[in-house]
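Study this pair:
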Amino acid sequence: MPPAAVPSASLATAQNRTLAALGGILVYAALIGFADNYVRVIANEAGLWQFHATRSVMILALVALMAIPLRLRLRPRNLRAVAARSLIHGTAILFYFGSLAFLPVAVVAAGLFSAPIFVLLIARFAYHQPIGLFRVAAVAIGFLGVILVLGPAKGEAPGLASFLPVLAGALYGLSNVATRQWCAGESAEVLTVGFFVALGLIGLAGLAVLVIWPAVAPAGPDGFVLRGHVAPTGTFLFWTFVQAVASLLGVVAMVKAYQLAEASRVSVFEYLILPISAGWTWVIWGEGLGAQAVAGMALIVVAGLIIAVRRH
């Protein structure tokens, strides 16, 4: 699960510490790819809303313990901007995790990594910024990749789960625009805490709705979205805590990477989460990806590279 956007370092730093930044991204991708593969286990035990509420409580407790020793600055400069950006980012990740109960991590991540494409479209149509022929080509290539990754295979009809990662990518791209346009002066820890607060509140709201209007949730992962509060099992609490720790450590590793190298280089490294997530899925569950999905991921990476290079 990609965390909040973070500031970039100077060009001189990027020239000297690029390999160290790559190491930080590898740590981030390994942690997130591993932990996200166990969302299907969590989906067997509880619901999406309870998961987000519980994980946010765990993460905020860990941040509170670290705030004084690490001298974290947790007071936002513009509360309304941070709240709006956190709501958009939180909703994106809500759809991301909702998809993980039904689709492989690498496939869902591919949908989320369509975010740079939506950033370009938002910049063009909302802020009237020119994007040029190369970036137009990147948008076309990226969308073709998304269609290949998330499109139905062997004549199957696409289901709702197939569209959720793309919706997550669109909202994640919007949150990235909000990070630059609304929250440029905020610290990484403020944006991170705001994000998890928003997710926790969304989780609590979902639980409240299911109390007022109960739904019949199918057993197993199929009931992940419709399941209300259940008595937490040891398995649920353990893997939710693993998610909390992996998310925090992943944020730290990514923040460090962006401090060691310029953003245009580090953003390219982030695409490593696609093969690493697929590798964890194969190691843990023995599941591989088809040639169509692999080809689609390659096109998404190519689109991201074009966008990053032209931005630089």
About this structure: Residues 3-14 have pLDDT under 50 and may be disordered.
